[in-house]
Design goal:
572 residues, alpha/beta, Rossmann fold, Glucose Oxidase, domain 1, four-stranded parallel sheet, 20 helices, 16 strands, binds FE2/S2 (inorganic) cluster
């Protein structure tokens, strides 16, 4: 059967294809399109502009640039809206809604006639949602990032969201700055539109996407306000036209090896721990399992090369000036699978060869002289980690990497909020703070609450870091000795459910160990007395779908019915 293109694709079912096309064209002609325009290949453009989303404020201009690229290449661009998620405007959490956005995007990619799709995303959950959708819909697709914000200043200091947001808030809580100053800071932290200007989740996902071959070279770091951001959009539109012709689908690009390249990038940039969960979800859509043990081994041989906040000192606009992704990939080359196909139609190795030459800079270090010698993110096992938990070593205090302390347990986010600053909280700096029932189902939505605040009375004494453990996530812009994603989560009976205040907890990152002292009999007694929290029950709507279907962090917290199972491959 002849392959249908453009407006002839995916005709609405009326039982008469000629009628369906005639009716479709009758309606679309009301928008002024000519027969010539309607005979061209169609490139869909997912527009995630929303007045609630400053990270996507530039999306309309990028859409315009992508359209220009499509039209210059002889195609018809068709913009369509999808859900847009911003971190601070997503109740209860953006993670709770990521799968909904991925379903919306996937189904629109299937339902609307398009020969290829350009996905415009940026804020933390939007790029993962779009890549999950692209992997499942499997039509030619290009990811375009909205791009990072520029850094700004507060007094003499450079600032940018959101590591500095947390740092100033910590100073305010400790009484080091007053209400007037925190008010002034609030007006300085986000000086332009665009995604967070540090190595948070948005930057991490953009760089990983480029390393995995789903974005045109150079696209991860161009600031949102630069003219190059629009030229990049135009190029993406033109390239989408070619991809439509070539039938270059995500399943040809997103292979176990390309996910391994994404993981290498994650480690080398000291990226957000959220990158692991999102990659597990995207790979899971293709039946590919993230091998966490292999990832841990990869961590030992992949140094952190990029000196960006939260673990380093610089901002995304500095990384862009330093050469952006090209500067990182050139250094990482010996560790990458170079024969992976990319959306350009060339391999990653060919793209690295074609990248512009580097110049002297101090943001991306050579492989021989890294910021940290390997071990960005470690995978922990032990009776408190269950199927695994992760810790971002490069963000830890060195003296806490091996630590034994008394557990101080908080049962929920509400319990944490109520008691953490109580003057009579029984806590000392050597204790281990534990937050449970904050995972995918427990919270719900696996919030970024793993950065448990230092209790006010300890913060006032100058305590800056403590060992903290939870089944939730942490913002990529945060730092500290923080164990995350304990799986399975407490709300489904994972090990965190059975630790009690006063138990001895042991963290040994060099040995990859997370455990607590409890006898088998005592553990059995606690298990028998346990019941799931009421928050894991929902009666209707999306909440019910979420509770019935959400998987654990090791499967990317995707919905079970959206993932491809059983796994047919593993990352190397
Ligand atoms: Fe959107 Fe940080 S809030 S990227």
């Amino acid at each position: 059967m002849k392959k249908q293109i453009g407006m002839r694709r995916g005709l609405t079912h009326y039982g008469d294809e000629g009628f369906a096309l005639y009716l479709r064209k009758a309606f679309i002609k009301a928008m002024g399109y000519s027969d010539d325009a309607l005979s061209r290949p169609v490139i869909g453009i997912a527009n995630t502009f929303s007045e609630y989303n400053a990270c996507h404020a530039n999306a309309p201009k990028i859409v315009e640039a992508v359209k220009r690229g499509v039209m210059l290449a002889g195609g018809l661009p068709m913009e369509f809206p999808t859900i847009s998620l911003h971190e601070s405007f997503s109740f209860p959490t953006s993670m709770y809604l990521r799968n909904l956005m991925s379903m919306d995007t996937e189904e629109m990619m299937r339902a609307l006639p398009m020969d290829a799709c350009v996905l415009i995303g940026g804020c933390d959950k939007t790029v993962p949602a779009q890549l999950m959708a692209a992997a499942s819909a499997d039509i030619p697709a290009i990811q375009v990032a909205t791009g990072p914000m520029l850094s700004g200043t507060h007094g003499e200091e450079r600032v940018g969201a959101c590591t500095d947001c947390r740092r100033f808030w910590g100073s305010y809580r400790a009484g080091d700055i007053d209400a007037d100053e925190i008010n002034r800071v609030e007006g300085r932290l986000v000086p332009t539109a665009g995604t967070c200007g540090v190595m948070g989740t948005a930057s991490t996902m953009a760089l990983m996407t480029e390393a995995m071959g789903m974005m045109l070279p150079g696209g991860a770091t161009i600031p949102t306000v630069h003219a190059d951001r629009l030229r990049h959009g135009e190029a993406a539109g033109a390239r989408a036209m070619k991809m439509a012709e070539e039938g270059l689908c995500p399943s040809k690009i997103l292979t176990p090896e390309s996910f391994a390249n994404g993981l290498r990038m994650l480690l080398a940039i000291g990226g957000s721990t959220n990158g692991v969960v999102h990659l597990a979800a995207i790979a899971g859509r293709l039946g590919i399992e993230l091998d966490m043990e292999a990832f841990d081994r990869m961590g030992e041989e992949t140094p952190v090369l990029v000196d960006l906040k939260p673990t380093g000192q610089f901002y995304m606009d500095d990384l862009h000036r330093a050469g952006g992704t090209a500067a990182i990939l050139r250094e990482l080359k010996p560790l990458l699978h170079l024969d992976c196909m990319t959306i350009t139609g060339r391999t990653l190795g060919e793209e690295i060869e074609a990248m512009p030459p580097g110049h002297t800079q101090n943001i991306v270090r050579p492989l021989s002289d890294p910021i940290h010698k390997g071990g960005g993110i470690a995978f922990l096992k032990g009776n408190l980690a269950g199927d695994g938990a992760i810790i971002k070593q490069s963000a830890c205090s060195g003296d806490l990497l091996t630590h034994e302390g008394r557990a101080v347990v908080f049962d929920s986010l509400e319990d944490l909020a109520e008691r953490i600053d109580a003057p009579d909280l029984d806590v000392s700096k050597d204790d281990v703070l534990i937050l449970r029932n904050a995972g995918p189902k427990g919270a719900p939505g696996m919030p970024e609450a793993g950065y448990i605040p230092i209790p006010k009375k300890l913060a006032a004494q100058g305590v800056k870091d403590m060992v903290r453990i939870s089944d939730c996530r942490m913002s990529g812009t945060a730092f500290g000795t923080i164990v995350l994603h304990a799986t399975p989560e407490a709300a489904v009976g994972g090990p965190l459910a059975f630790v009690e205040t006063g138990d001895t907890v042991r963290l040994d990152v060099p040995k990859r160990l997370l455990e607590f002292d409890v006898t088998d009999e005592e553990l059995e007694r606690r298990r028998a007395a346990w019941s799931a929290p009421a928050t894991t029950h929902a009666e209707r709507g999306y909440a019910k779908l979420y509770m019935d279907q959400v998987t654990q962090a090791d499967e990317g917290a995707d919905f079970a019915f959206l993932a491809k199972r059983p796994y047919t491959a593993k990352t190397p």
